[in-house]
Structure formats: structure tokens, C-alpha cells
Specification:
Layout: E1 10-13, E2 20-21, H1 23-36, H2 44-50, H3 55-58, H4 68-82, E3 88-89, H5 93-103, E4 106-114, H6 115-124, E5 134-137, H7 147-157, E6 164-168, H8 171-179, E7 183-187, H9 194-199, E8 204-206, H10 209-218
Parallel strand pairs: 1-4, 1-6, 4-5, 6-7, 7-8
Antiparallel strand pairs: 2-3
């Protein structure tokens, strides 16, 4: 599907690996949970390659099945303590939001991080007024790429899927876009490289949000 910026009236933007880099803090939580339960700590690279489908999915890759529930509870307790630490807003984020503001494009965060933590991070970084809404895990019973979760985001933003773009960094984001009829715009700042994202079906792949903003502004 050929994607034209002139047709895009709204953006659903993933959080981790797309709008912010939070991998250091997330990695610390997985390592802490594994260490507390007496299992080997995953490397930072292994964690980075494994995330995208939410913590309950990712932690299954690091612990035996009978330890997963205990690991999730330990992870959550540790994350609650440190979730505002180590947040890096990625290059081009402000440029992208400035473009949305100047052109009337709606922007929202659509993530598998919990909504409570996502809103706290966005507020803490000073971007609370920049988004129409922030929709995260536990705000609905669903997660990306379940069609019901995408449908909830589309209903909330109030724009048809064929006039929306999902901006993300993983195949979960691409599938979430596909099930809602949205364009899948990816960046290589997260868990997957350009080739992997194109092979997964991304319509466009960029190296930063700054490049996305430039494409939206000038590729008409």
C-alpha cells in the first residue's frame, strides 16, 4: 500500500523505542526479577530484542513457566519504584509534535506499556498537553496487536483508520496498524532494524522521528 502524507489526519504513536528510550530501566526490572528468583539475568541486548508485546509476554522468555507469575509480581514492584528513571525522549519527538500542532494532525500515544505508567512518564517529561490521549495496557482488556485494542484507539481518536498512521518500532505495531487499516510507519530506534520492519510489512521505515516529521511535511 502506497502511503501519502497528505491523507494522514492522525497519528497513533508507540511509546517505548519510538517516542522514548526506556530500555535501561526496563532491563533493570527484568534482571532484578530473574536475580531475585535465582535465574540468569538477561543481557540488555536480549531484553531489547524481546520487548514489544508487553511485559507479561516478554518475561516468559527469561523464566521457566512455573516462575512467570512470581516474576511478573517482582517486576511490577521494581518498575513502580523506578519507572520515572532513565527516560530519554528520542530525537525528533518535538519536531513531530510541532508539525502535528501546526497542521492540525491529531496525535495520541498507543502503547503496550500500562496506561498509568505511560501517562506518568509523558507528564514527567513535559508532554502532557501535546497528545489527545494516552492509551495503554490495562486501560482496556486488550493489547497490541489485538484488533479490539486498535479499534478502541481508532474510536477514541475519532478518525477512520485509512486516514491514520501507526508509528512504532516493532512487528506488533505493524500488525496493530494492519488490523485497523492504518499505515504502518516505523522507526529503527527500538527493537528491530530496517530489514526486519520492511519484511514484517511496514509501509515506510525511517531512522528517527525527525525523518518522519520531514516526510509528513514535505513528501506531498
Amino acid at each position: 500500500m502506497e502511503v501519502s502524507p497528505s491523507n494522514i489526519r492522525g497519528l497513533l504513536i508507540d511509546l517505548d523505542g519510538t517516542f522514548v528510550d526506556h530500555i535501561q530501566t526496563i532491563t533493570r526490572c527484568f534482571q532484578y526479577a530473574c536475580r531475585e528468583l535465582g535465574f540468569p539475568q538477561p543481557s540488555a541486548e536480549k531484553v531489547k530484542r524481546s520487548i514489544g508485546g508487553s511485559m507479561p509476554v516478554t518475561i516468559q522468555k527469561f523464566l521457566p513457566a512455573d516462575q512467570v507469575e512470581a516474576g511478573k509480581e517482582i517486576w511490577r514492584r521494581r518498575f513502580e519504584e523506578i519507572h520515572l528513571q532513565g527516560v530519554v525522549v528520542l530525537h525528533g519527538a518535538e519536531e513531530l509534535l510541532d508539525h502535528c500542532n501546526s497542521t492540525g494532525i491529531k496525535a495520541a500515544i498507543f502503547t503496550n506499556k500500562t496506561g498509568v505508567h505511560s501517562r506518568a512518564i509523558i507528564e514527567n517529561e513535559g508532554y502532557g498537553e501535546c497528545f489527545d490521549f494516552i492509551l495503554g495496557a490495562e486501560d482496556t482488556p486488550y493489547r497490541k496487536p489485538q484488533p479490539e485494542y486498535t479499534a478502541a484507539a481508532i474510536e477514541k481518536i475519532g478518525i477512520p483508520g485509512n486516514q491514520l498512521a501507526m508509528i512504532g518500532d516493532s512487528p506488533f505495531d505493524i500488525e496493530a496498524a494492519r488490523v485497523g487499516g492504518m499505515a504502518a510507519i516505523c522507526v529503527t530506534t527500538g527493537s528491530h532494524n530496517r530489514e526486519e520492519l520492511l519484511n514484517a510489512g511496514a509501509n515506510k521505515v525511517f531512522d528517527s522521528l525527525a525523518e518522519v516529521a520531514h516526510w509528513l511535511a514535505y513528501d506531498n
